[in-house]
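In this section we walk through a basic example: taking a raw amino acid sequence and producing a predicted 3D structure, encoded as C-alpha coordinates. The instruction is simple. Fold the sequence below.
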Amino acid sequence: MRRIIHKLQALWSSIRQGNSGKVLEEFRRWLYSDSFSFGLRRDLQQPFVAPPAKIPILVRPLAENDKPKIFADEGYSLHIRHDFLDENIPTCYLATTTDGDPCYIQWLMSPSHNHQIQAYFRGLFPVLAPDEALLEYAYTLEKYRGQKIMPSAMAQFAEKAADFGARWVITFVEQDNIPALKGCKNAGFYPYLIRRERWRLFRRSLTFTPLPDGTPYPFDATSEGKTAAAA
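The resulting C-alpha coordinate sequence is shown next.
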Protein backbone atom coordinates (compact mmCIF):
# COMPACT_ATOMS: atom_id res chain seq x y z
CA MET A 1 0.00 0.00 0.00
CA ARG A 2 2.81 2.43 0.85
CA ARG A 3 4.35 1.89 -2.58
CA ILE A 4 1.03 2.78 -4.22
CA ILE A 5 0.78 5.92 -2.09
CA HIS A 6 4.33 6.87 -3.04
CA LYS A 7 3.54 6.37 -6.74
CA LEU A 8 0.43 8.52 -6.48
CA GLN A 9 2.41 11.23 -4.70
CA ALA A 10 5.05 11.06 -7.43
CA LEU A 11 2.37 11.31 -10.12
CA TRP A 12 0.85 14.33 -8.38
CA SER A 13 4.32 15.89 -8.33
CA SER A 14 4.56 15.24 -12.09
CA ILE A 15 1.22 16.98 -12.65
CA ARG A 16 2.37 20.01 -10.66
CA GLN A 17 5.51 20.15 -12.80
CA GLY A 18 3.42 20.03 -15.98
CA ASN A 19 4.27 16.44 -16.89
CA SER A 20 0.76 15.05 -17.25
CA GLY A 21 1.99 12.62 -19.91
CA LYS A 22 3.63 10.46 -17.24
CA VAL A 23 0.34 10.29 -15.35
CA LEU A 24 -1.58 9.13 -18.44
CA GLU A 25 1.12 6.58 -19.21
CA GLU A 26 0.88 5.05 -15.75
CA PHE A 27 -2.90 4.92 -15.69
CA ARG A 28 -2.99 3.25 -19.12
CA ARG A 29 -0.53 0.68 -17.82
CA TRP A 30 -2.64 -0.02 -14.72
CA LEU A 31 -5.80 -0.39 -16.82
CA TYR A 32 -4.47 -2.92 -19.34
CA SER A 33 -0.90 -3.96 -20.04
CA ASP A 34 1.55 -6.83 -20.23
CA SER A 35 5.24 -6.22 -19.67
CA PHE A 36 8.24 -8.49 -19.45
CA SER A 37 11.49 -8.02 -17.55
CA PHE A 38 14.69 -10.00 -17.38
CA GLY A 39 15.76 -11.23 -13.99
CA LEU A 40 19.55 -10.88 -14.01
CA ARG A 41 22.06 -12.22 -11.55
CA ARG A 42 25.77 -12.18 -10.82
CA ASP A 43 27.75 -14.94 -9.15
CA LEU A 44 30.11 -13.31 -6.67
CA GLN A 45 32.22 -16.47 -6.58
CA GLN A 46 33.26 -15.84 -10.18
CA PRO A 47 36.18 -13.42 -10.62
CA PHE A 48 35.10 -10.13 -12.11
CA VAL A 49 36.77 -6.74 -12.46
CA ALA A 50 34.47 -3.71 -12.31
CA PRO A 51 34.73 -1.73 -15.56
CA PRO A 52 36.01 1.83 -15.22
CA ALA A 53 33.68 4.78 -15.68
CA LYS A 54 34.71 7.63 -17.95
CA ILE A 55 35.44 9.66 -14.82
CA PRO A 56 36.94 8.45 -11.52
CA ILE A 57 34.26 7.52 -8.97
CA LEU A 58 34.11 6.51 -5.32
CA VAL A 59 31.40 4.33 -3.78
CA ARG A 60 29.97 4.39 -0.25
CA PRO A 61 26.66 4.27 1.61
CA LEU A 62 24.39 7.29 1.26
CA ALA A 63 24.79 9.83 4.06
CA GLU A 64 22.18 12.23 5.39
CA ASN A 65 23.97 15.28 3.98
CA ASP A 66 23.94 13.74 0.48
CA LYS A 67 20.15 13.85 0.22
CA PRO A 68 19.69 17.58 -0.59
CA LYS A 69 22.18 17.27 -3.45
CA ILE A 70 20.43 14.24 -4.96
CA PHE A 71 16.75 14.92 -4.36
CA ALA A 72 16.59 18.61 -5.22
CA ASP A 73 14.79 17.62 -8.43
CA GLU A 74 11.49 15.98 -7.45
CA GLY A 75 10.69 14.42 -10.83
CA TYR A 76 8.73 11.17 -10.92
CA SER A 77 11.65 8.71 -10.69
CA LEU A 78 13.53 10.59 -8.01
CA HIS A 79 10.36 11.26 -6.01
CA ILE A 80 9.69 7.52 -5.70
CA ARG A 81 13.27 6.83 -4.62
CA HIS A 82 13.17 9.68 -2.11
CA ASP A 83 10.03 8.22 -0.56
CA PHE A 84 11.60 4.75 -0.52
CA LEU A 85 14.24 6.06 1.88
CA ASP A 86 11.47 6.28 4.51
CA GLU A 87 11.10 2.48 4.37
CA ASN A 88 14.51 2.19 6.07
CA ILE A 89 15.53 -0.83 4.00
CA PRO A 90 19.33 -0.85 3.85
CA THR A 91 21.49 -0.08 2.08
CA CYS A 92 21.31 2.81 -0.36
CA TYR A 93 24.74 3.07 -1.96
CA LEU A 94 26.12 6.15 -3.67
CA ALA A 95 28.75 6.76 -6.35
CA THR A 96 30.40 10.17 -6.25
CA THR A 97 33.08 12.03 -8.13
CA THR A 98 36.43 12.36 -6.39
CA ASP A 99 35.19 15.79 -5.27
CA GLY A 100 32.19 14.20 -3.54
CA ASP A 101 29.52 15.21 -6.06
CA PRO A 102 26.76 12.52 -6.20
CA CYS A 103 26.46 10.68 -9.53
CA TYR A 104 24.45 7.48 -9.01
CA ILE A 105 22.41 5.68 -6.35
CA GLN A 106 21.11 2.12 -5.95
CA TRP A 107 19.83 -0.05 -3.11
CA LEU A 108 21.51 -3.33 -2.12
CA MET A 109 19.05 -5.34 -0.01
CA SER A 110 19.66 -8.51 2.00
CA PRO A 111 17.37 -11.47 2.82
CA SER A 112 17.14 -10.24 6.40
CA HIS A 113 14.74 -7.57 5.02
CA ASN A 114 12.58 -9.95 2.96
CA HIS A 115 9.45 -9.03 4.90
CA GLN A 116 9.86 -5.30 4.22
CA ILE A 117 10.81 -5.88 0.58
CA GLN A 118 7.78 -8.08 -0.07
CA ALA A 119 5.41 -5.76 1.82
CA TYR A 120 6.57 -2.71 -0.14
CA PHE A 121 6.96 -4.19 -3.63
CA ARG A 122 4.01 -6.62 -3.32
CA GLY A 123 5.76 -9.60 -4.89
CA LEU A 124 7.52 -7.70 -7.68
CA PHE A 125 10.73 -9.52 -6.74
CA PRO A 126 11.25 -13.14 -5.63
CA VAL A 127 11.76 -13.81 -1.93
CA LEU A 128 15.51 -13.73 -1.40
CA ALA A 129 17.23 -16.97 -0.47
CA PRO A 130 19.82 -16.85 2.34
CA ASP A 131 22.63 -16.58 -0.23
CA GLU A 132 20.98 -13.89 -2.38
CA ALA A 133 20.84 -10.09 -2.44
CA LEU A 134 18.66 -7.67 -4.42
CA LEU A 135 20.14 -4.66 -6.23
CA GLU A 136 17.40 -2.24 -7.32
CA TYR A 137 16.09 1.33 -7.73
CA ALA A 138 19.09 2.59 -9.69
CA TYR A 139 19.25 6.24 -10.69
CA THR A 140 21.96 8.22 -12.49
CA LEU A 141 21.82 11.97 -11.94
CA GLU A 142 21.17 13.72 -15.22
CA LYS A 143 24.44 15.62 -15.54
CA TYR A 144 26.43 12.39 -15.19
CA ARG A 145 24.56 10.31 -17.76
CA GLY A 146 26.65 8.96 -20.63
CA GLN A 147 29.72 8.60 -18.40
CA LYS A 148 29.45 4.78 -18.01
CA ILE A 149 29.00 5.24 -14.27
CA MET A 150 26.16 2.71 -13.93
CA PRO A 151 28.10 -0.51 -14.76
CA SER A 152 31.14 0.56 -12.77
CA ALA A 153 29.17 1.56 -9.66
CA MET A 154 26.72 -1.34 -9.93
CA ALA A 155 29.55 -3.87 -10.10
CA GLN A 156 31.13 -2.37 -6.99
CA PHE A 157 27.84 -2.17 -5.09
CA ALA A 158 27.14 -5.84 -5.86
CA GLU A 159 30.41 -6.89 -4.27
CA LYS A 160 29.25 -5.42 -0.94
CA ALA A 161 26.73 -8.30 -0.74
CA ALA A 162 29.58 -10.66 0.16
CA ASP A 163 29.73 -8.82 3.50
CA PHE A 164 26.42 -10.44 4.54
CA GLY A 165 27.16 -13.84 3.01
CA ALA A 166 25.47 -13.56 -0.39
CA ARG A 167 26.77 -15.46 -3.37
CA TRP A 168 24.15 -14.27 -5.89
CA VAL A 169 23.07 -10.68 -6.54
CA ILE A 170 19.90 -10.22 -8.57
CA THR A 171 18.26 -7.30 -10.34
CA PHE A 172 15.43 -6.80 -12.85
CA VAL A 173 15.31 -4.77 -16.08
CA GLU A 174 12.51 -4.42 -18.63
CA GLN A 175 13.30 -6.42 -21.74
CA ASP A 176 13.14 -3.41 -24.09
CA ASN A 177 15.48 -1.24 -21.97
CA ILE A 178 18.55 -2.16 -23.99
CA PRO A 179 20.90 0.52 -22.54
CA ALA A 180 20.18 -0.68 -18.98
CA LEU A 181 20.57 -4.32 -20.01
CA LYS A 182 23.94 -3.55 -21.59
CA GLY A 183 24.99 -1.72 -18.44
CA CYS A 184 24.02 -4.75 -16.33
CA LYS A 185 25.97 -7.08 -18.61
CA ASN A 186 29.02 -4.85 -18.22
CA ALA A 187 28.52 -5.07 -14.44
CA GLY A 188 28.74 -8.88 -14.59
CA PHE A 189 25.03 -9.83 -14.65
CA TYR A 190 23.36 -12.44 -16.89
CA PRO A 191 19.73 -13.47 -17.54
CA TYR A 192 18.24 -16.21 -15.36
CA LEU A 193 14.50 -15.39 -15.16
CA ILE A 194 11.69 -13.75 -17.10
CA ARG A 195 9.10 -11.81 -15.10
CA ARG A 196 5.70 -11.15 -16.63
CA GLU A 197 3.74 -8.29 -15.09
CA ARG A 198 0.07 -8.24 -16.12
CA TRP A 199 -2.32 -5.36 -15.31
CA ARG A 200 -6.08 -5.56 -15.77
CA LEU A 201 -8.31 -2.81 -14.34
CA PHE A 202 -5.81 -1.84 -11.63
CA ARG A 203 -5.19 -5.46 -10.58
CA ARG A 204 -1.72 -6.91 -11.06
CA SER A 205 -0.51 -10.49 -11.46
CA LEU A 206 3.10 -11.66 -11.66
CA THR A 207 4.74 -14.81 -12.96
CA PHE A 208 8.42 -15.79 -12.89
CA THR A 209 9.81 -18.26 -15.44
CA PRO A 210 13.35 -19.62 -15.09
CA LEU A 211 15.60 -19.38 -18.13
CA PRO A 212 18.09 -22.06 -19.23
CA ASP A 213 21.69 -21.51 -18.19
CA GLY A 214 23.54 -19.50 -20.80
CA THR A 215 20.48 -17.64 -22.11
CA PRO A 216 21.89 -14.64 -24.02
CA TYR A 217 20.81 -11.05 -23.75
CA PRO A 218 18.41 -10.05 -26.57
CA PHE A 219 21.06 -7.89 -28.25
CA ASP A 220 23.57 -10.78 -28.13
CA ALA A 221 21.01 -13.18 -29.60
CA THR A 222 20.39 -10.72 -32.44
CA SER A 223 24.13 -10.42 -33.11
CA GLU A 224 24.55 -14.20 -33.12
CA GLY A 225 21.64 -14.52 -35.57
CA LYS A 226 23.17 -11.98 -37.95
CA THR A 227 26.54 -13.78 -37.80
CA ALA A 228 24.91 -17.13 -38.55
CA ALA A 229 22.93 -15.64 -41.45
CA ALA A 230 26.09 -14.08 -42.90
CA ALA A 231 27.90 -17.41 -42.70
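Looking at the output, two observations stand out. The radius of gyration is 18 Å. The chain has one domain: 2-230. In the next section we compare this with other chains.
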